[in-house]
Specification:
Elements: E1 20-26, E2 30-36, E3 55-60, H1 62-70, E4 74-80, E5 82-83, H2 89-98, E6 102-103, E7 106-107, E8 114-120, E9 131-135, H3 146-151, H4 153-157, E10 161-165, H5 172-188, E11 191-195, H6 201-204, H7 207-216, E12 219-223, H8 224-230, H9 239-252, E13 258-263, E14 270-275, E15 278-284, H10 296-310
Helix pairs in contact: 1-10
Amino acid sequence: MVPSRSPVEWPGLGGADERRFGLLIIGDVGIEVRASLPDVRFTELDSDRLSYAPARAMVAGTAVNLARCATRYFRRVGVLGKVGDDDFTPVIRGELRRIGVEDHLRVEAGGANGVAVMLRDRPCGGGPGARLLVVRDDPPGRRLAEPEVRAASAGIAGADVLATDGYALLSPVSRAALHAAARTARDAGTRVAFDLVPHDIDARLPAGAVLPMLALADLVVSEAPTLARLLGRPAPFSGRQVRGLLPELDRAVPGRPLWLLRFGATSLERVLAYRRDELLLEYPTGYGEGVERAGFGDRLTVCELYWWLSGS
């Protein structure tokens, strides 16, 4: 069962009064450079340009971003991922120690760490501006292998929930590792949560490469349009249209995972919580004009995970 109040009402997006549960996260770990262009739109650029604007470099990646938020809710947080072996590696490990996250990293000898560049242009019409995300095309996380996951089986078994995401599905090697991690978790009684990203995964992989992972999950977080496109259905935007997608989920995915389906103008404003034959809850996330989008999805996800575990 899930609590009757929405996660935004309790425990809330600011953190939990009592940190509980153990969370192990499998995902990308690397270095990210973030910058914004307050004075120009991408469509206005027709020549080289120098802009002085807010910019910073940080340890990031799907696993680290989620872990940072999770430390405000969970008693114990760990990250399992594959990193390179260069000057950034001690920086990455030092940042995990600084934020109080257990290091289950696997190191690729002689390999370079993954690097991403996120650039956002000038807001237009009250929106946040367009985001351009450039990611190294062959990060070490795509080579996280099944034996490396099995070597971390004690950490998986010791967690209350294993949180995973769809970037690992993009490589056959890390896809097999992700499936092995999920099966290890299920055998140990650890719940499995899966975040269906990237949001254009339907354009990158066939449904047959994604649906088996959904079948291994106890909870799936997804933007409703992503899931609809993956199933070959029109992208829904309203609550009524999202409800129309539910029978398709039941036909495509066996079992009774808890679906947290995000929808709205930017697919982040509202969530429909559903389990087979049981519409549980619809709630607003609190996202809207004036709310910083960067990191909001991670804050919402860890809040929902804590809320979900607390309802058992």
